[in-house]
Amino acid sequence: MDTVKEAGPNPCPPTIIGVGIGGTFEQAALQAKKSLLRPLGTPNPDPELDDLEQELLAEIREFGGDMKETYGVPVEEIVIGIQNGVRKINIDTDIRLAMTGAIRRYLVENPSKFDPRDYLKPAREAAKKVCVARFQSFGTAGQASKIKVIPLDKMAERYKSGDLNQVVR
After folding, report:
1. Among 47, 25, 26, 29, CA closest to 37
2. How far apart are CA 14 and CA 93, in angstroms?
3. Taking the model in full, what pTM does it have?
4. Which tens digits make up the pLDDT trace of 4-44?
């Protein structure tokens, strides 16, 4: 870590850092070790998630995309983070991959179509499929009724008053 700190924004490649998300030092260290020791370009160790990743990439490539391999944080590591207090999870890359593949497929299979209202329908369905899978994995499926609705004007007041300022302890 000293080398990373000293190099700052100008490290000499290759630079690889293992990242672990966990509530205790032992959990975080174990996850960091797993991510560091996982060879670059290797598939997700979870067969179901690897299948989904490969399916999304294959669809993009099949219909003319030049998408390189992409691997995010394994879902099992995200779940450990959630269990230990992480509350912001970004699944945007998975959603964009799904939508891109669906749009490419639609346009190849329907070359005379050009209306976004047509090709965005399968893109939305592909995004929905990814969201449902992630929500189920993360334990958030079916929890929307527990969210307390706060009107926009009330939220604006809370921001203005400083009630929502970040507090670092």
Report:
1. 29
2. 23
3. 0.55
4. 566 666 655 555 555 555 566 676 666 666 665 666 566 66
